[in-house]
Write a structure and sequence with these properties.
mainly alpha, about 130 residues, about 10% strand
């Protein structure tokens, strides 16, 4: 599963105080963590949040080499991925004690982008 128009997978690495080594946190997982931080409790709510970010950037998922065109199918796939993340990856990230290290930069970036969008006139956002 890949994001369409993905420039790179671009995983962010953070240091784990438990292992003393870097832990990769890919963008999709960062978005899920941000969704959780913003109070999205269910996999479906998290998937809708992630979809709002991806679709807002003109991205969508790719399955078996083909773009998933419909919003409904993208959200369904993202929901499955969110459940898998919560069951398998999230416990590992918690055990490695890296969640605070990931969420703080994401929160700052989200806040900065939101403030920037408030300052820009709409003509700057629409071609």
């Amino acid at each position: 599963m890949f994001f369409r128009r993905n420039r790179r997978a671009n995983p962010r690495k953070v240091a784990s105080p438990v292992t003393g080594s870097g832990v990769a946190i890919p963008r999709f997982q960062q978005l899920l963590l941000l969704a959780m931080e913003q109070g999205k409790k269910t996999a479906a709510d998290q998937a809708r949040f992630v979809w709002s970010v991806l679709s807002g950037q003109g991205q969508r998922l790719v399955r078996e080499g083909k773009p998933i065109d419909s919003e409904k199918e993208n959200i369904e796939e993202l929901t499955v991925m969110a459940r898998d993340f919560a069951a398998n990856r999230l416990p590992v990230l918690k055990a490695l004690d890296v969640l605070a290290l990931v969420l703080i930069p994401i929160q700052v970036a989200a806040r900065s982008l939101s403030e920037l969008a408030d300052l820009l006139p709409l003509s700057c956002l629409c071609p």
